[in-house]
Amino acid sequence: MTKALDYFDPASQHDDDLSAALVEVLAKFLVISFTSDWRFSPARSRKIVKALLDNKKEVSYAEIKSHDGHDAFLMQIPHYLQIFQAYMQQIEITGEES
Amino acid sequence: MTFGRRVVYNTWHSSLANGLNINLTKGRHVGLPLHYARRGEPTCSPYVFALRVRPTCSPYVFALKIITPVGANLRVRPQLITLFQMPDILPPDCVGLVRPQTHQFTTPLALDCGRSLPSYELIYETYGQLNQNHSNAVLICHALSSDHHAAGYYSMQDKKPGWWESCIGPGKPIDTNRFFVVSLNNLGACQGSTGPKSINPETGKPYGPDFPIVTVRDWVKSQARLGDVLGITQWAAVIGGSLGGMQALQWAIDYPKHLRHSVVIAAAPKLTAQNIAFNEVARQAILSDPDFHAGHYYQHDVVPRRGLMLARMLGHITYLSEDAMRKSLGGNYAKVNSILALMSNFKLKVIYAIKAAHLLIALMPILIY
Q: What CATH number did the domain enclosing A16 receive?
């Protein structure tokens, strides 16, 4: 399992250029990071955001203040949940009764 | 045993489980503070080896199983502390009782490593209803040691809900009133989907170390096949935290037309050298355990416990922030060993480990009195 993590590097097939790896992306993105996460720090998430912006992809980014480290994404942090919820609510579902 | 009275419970004769029934008052968080004292030393350093609370027929009568050192006297003082307990009524923002399903895939799956799995099973759960044109499906990708049980409870006796209960449910960020949520256990993750524990059809024995290395791309491919089975051609969103976030990113790269949104939480485009080094230390801890048996430990009917414990401790340290760790220790650095060791012994998954640390901290003043 940890090997799957180690090998994860979508940019490797594009001369280590993450932006090039994301050229074909069509999805809109929400990227969230947590200030006290030193395992996957906000700087790492910002790399994803930058690569998406390089390709003019639509991306929302939130950096949440938190003291909970990497596990913050499982926690009930109001600011985080509000942003997450707001993003999810604007996802359009075709055929949804309004 | 009466509520509120001190009771001396002698466990001299046994070093293992002793059950006793205790009537508790009604409430969402009920539990017992435990005080241990060695025989003849009523106030000396107390410690808990293991504690399990299991509901019996009545929701407020618990069988309390306590594992004590040989020769310890256990005194139970039933005051309120917090233990995890199933609420007596499910909260309205919970998906309720859920049940996992399994699908057997018989088309071989070609893997990144060059090998292929001739057949495999994926276990998954779903929450909410798939709408008529199948446009409201959301895929949840799990992190390293997690599983398919992301929300809800399996039974009213469950002490804990799924691992992402905070975000999945009616009215929650991943709103099951709107979305049909699919959460699966990844290949190789050993929580019900095909993995090293499964029988290799070619040898009739567990795969063990022969199980092929699976990558994030392989997982995404297997998840896409699960989508096909469920009739989902395009996900409204693919969502994940940590390693799950990496899968959500990989989805957008590999299957751009098959998802409309990708939610990437606490992830990274690749691991740092430091991350990889941590993983290597964790792996070495397991590999160097004599019970590892070159990976064939299932055949020897053992588990490399010490290695796994060390790996889990290391992982936990990297998941916590400096602040959280400092808070857990409460300024007493000597406690770190016992806290981490207890967490390992409890075999708690990392996502519950922080809760456990808080529980133990809550216990400390009582234990030390």
A: 3.40.50
Which residues are bridge partners to A62 per DSSP?
A32
Distance CA B120, CA B292 (A): 25
Q: Is-above-0.90 flag for pTM? A: no
By CA distance, what is B164's nearest residue in A? A74
Q: Is the pLDDT of residue B180 over 80?
A: yes
DSSP secondary structure letters along A64-93: E--SSGGGGGGS--HHHHHHHHHHHHT---
Domain-embedded: residue A1:
no
A61 touches chain B (CB under 8 A): no
- Supply the pLDDT for residue A15: 84
How many domains, chain A?
Answer: 1
Residue A2 lies in a domain: no
pLDDT of amino acid B87: 52
Residue B359 has pLDDT above 60, yes or no: no
State the average pLDDT for chain B: 70
What confidence tens digit (pLDDT) does each residue in B296-328 have?
Answer: 777 777 777 887 777 777 777 776 666 666 665
- Asked if A88 is an interface residue toward chain B (Cβ–Cβ < 8 A), one would say yes
User: For residues B32 and B99, is the Cβ–Cβ distance under 8 A?
Assistant: no
Q: Given A28, A41, A70, which is nearest B319 (Cβ)?
A: A70
